[in-house]
Write a structure and sequence with these properties.
NAD-dependent protein deacetylase which modulates the activities of several enzymes which are inactive in their acetylated form. It is an enzyme of class 2 (transferase). InterPro entries: DHS-like_NAD/FAD-binding_dom, NAD-dep_sirtuin_deacylases, Sirtuin, Sirtuin_cat_small_dom_sf, Sirtuin_class_U, Ssirtuin_cat_dom. Keywords: Acyltransferase, Cytoplasm, Metal-binding, NAD, Transferase, Zinc. By secondary structure, the protein is α/β, with parallel strands linked by helices. The protein has two domains: about 140 residues, 3-Layer(aba) Sandwich (Rossmann fold); about 80 residues, SIR2/SIRT2 'Small Domain' (2-Layer Sandwich), CATH 3.30.1600.10. About 30% of the residues lie in helices and about 15% in strands. The strands form two sheets. It has a six-stranded parallel β-sheet with strand order 3-2-1-7-8-9, sandwiched between helices. Helix 6 links the parallel strand 2 and strand 3.
Length: about 240
Amino acid sequence: MVQALEEIIAKSSSIVFFGGAGVSTESGIPDFRSVDGLYHQKYAYPPETILSHTFWEENPEEFYRFYRDKLIVKGAKPNAAHLRLAKLEREGRLRAVVTQNIDGLHQAAGSRAVYELHGSTLRNYCTRCGKFYDVDFIANSTGVPRCTECGGIVKPDVVLYEEGLDEEVLSGAVNAIRHADTLIIGGTSLVVYPAAGLIRYFRGDHLVVINMQPTGADAEADLCIAKPIGQVLSEDVTLDL
């Protein structure tokens, strides 16, 4: 299976990687829907409710308590999957990474062409004056974080439920997928829309799915690998060509 993947990579010159939470689990970041992951924690409200725009507006104290506790992960480092994808970009084989993750680990690994569909915890802005704040400002604040300049609420640049995806990011991701010769889907069960719907724009030669559970794209895929993605993309299993 892995050898077949390496053969596809070797003859591709415009790969796009479309990834989800499973890419970061090997870096110690919990999968939103796995057992003991974000969706199995005990809070007064379900995570989908807490992570909504309405809840952020109406219950900001509880939103930020949950956000600091569950979405800001300290000390996470890129794993073998992040590093391999960055290497493929440097080699000129990978055109872009399209990610549903908000942890910034693709950039930390060295990837440059990254479309963050759901934003990033590393960017935070004052809702009143627009001043930028890093992740530590939110992590180290208490209650509702306020701008040091104007006193406005500092909001994470993360797409909450009820909010639309950034149009510029969306169009860039669609364009990359549309022009890819190989699309590798990894670490996502393709259940979160509209993000998951982007793969319908792929018209290239090879569709590869690397995910522990079945996905809606398996039937159309040339190759399905049910293994941890860091293990699959590890440099240890590359082909001698």
